[in-house]
Write a structure and sequence with these properties.
It contains eight helices and ten strands. With 254 residues, it is an alpha/beta fold. It has a single domain, classed as TIM Barrel (Alpha-Beta Barrel). The strands form two sheets. Strands 1, 4, 5, 6, 7, 8, 9 and 10 form an eight-stranded parallel β-sheet that branches.
């Protein structure tokens, strides 16, 4: 089975001026639309993490690709959601549960411009447009700097809070900053999530659905690598990222 790319996006908006910290994490609306159209033309089906699950487990096969957004920015709803809907694609947006309706405050000390996050009504609109919500913890902390008990609260309570406020099941998790240990992966699994994504670079090798023992293999679902898409990801490079071992090679180089 061919490896499955899971794309990582942050903000879908016009980039701030040169020299602005984290400027690379902005992808323009036009670039995003071209990328989604490219996937469509190549025969890919863009899927949320929950819809991608049976493909990751080897229970289904097809030309599929995961689409994820970190943090829950309002510009995801304004610019990305209509494009996804027009393509009949779904995606997962990882929301910081205590900062719903707030801003990316965890970035402010780095000089990153303030950007609004979706409020509750807007997240519900996101869901109504056929998109999924996952958890990005309660406050976007560095999990590796927390006591295990505090990390557990960040992981567990974000899930229960989102489910209570949104009236949907939240099964997907993403580690803030991509930082985690085996302990955190176990905490995510124990909290009842189905999978967790990281910032490790690479495509996902689907499990063998005919294998007799999937219990151990499923641990891999809590350390899923992704394919970063940034402002400087131009069309030829985008193709390399999704269709070749480009990301695996870059991961080794990094």
């Amino acid at each position: 089975m061919n490896p499955i790319p899971i794309l990582t996006y942050h903000q879908i908006d016009k980039a701030p001026p040169k020299g602005t910290p984290m400027r690379s994490l902005y992808v323009s609306k036009n670039s995003f639309e071209r990328q989604m159209m490219t996937l469509k033309v190549l025969g890919y089906k863009g899927l949320s993490m929950s819809e991608l699950q049976p493909y990751l487990l080897g229970q289904k096969q097809g030309r599929v690709i995961g689409i994820t957004f970190d943090d829950g920015y309002l510009n995801n709803l304004v610019h990305a959601a209509p494009i996804l809907k027009s393509m009949n694609f779904s995606s997962t947006c990882y929301v910081v549960s205590d900062l719903i309706g707030g801003t990316n405050s965890w970035d402010h000390m780095l000089g990153v411009p303030s950007a609004p996050l979706m409020n509750l009504a807007q997240i519900k609109e996101w869901i109504d447009l056929g998109q999924e919500v996952g958890s990005h913890t309660r406050t976007h902390p560095h999990l590796i700097e927390l006591e295990d008990s505090v990390a557990r609260e960040e992981i567990e309570l974000s899930k229960s809070e989102l489910q209570s406020r949104l009236g949907v099941v939240v099964n997907q998790f993403c580690y803030p900053y991509g930082q985690f240990t085996k302990v955190h992966a176990e905490l995510v699994k124990a909290a009842g999530y189905w999978a967790a994504t990281t910032t490790k670079r690479g495509r996902v090798q689907a499990l063998n659905g005919s294998a007799g023992n999937l219990v151990t293999d499923k641990d891999y679902l809590f350390e899923l690598p992704r394919v970063p898409v940034v402002r400087s990801t131009y069309w030829p490079q985008f193709l390399l990222k999704i269709a070749t071992s480009y990301e695996t090679r870059r991961a080794v180089m990094d």
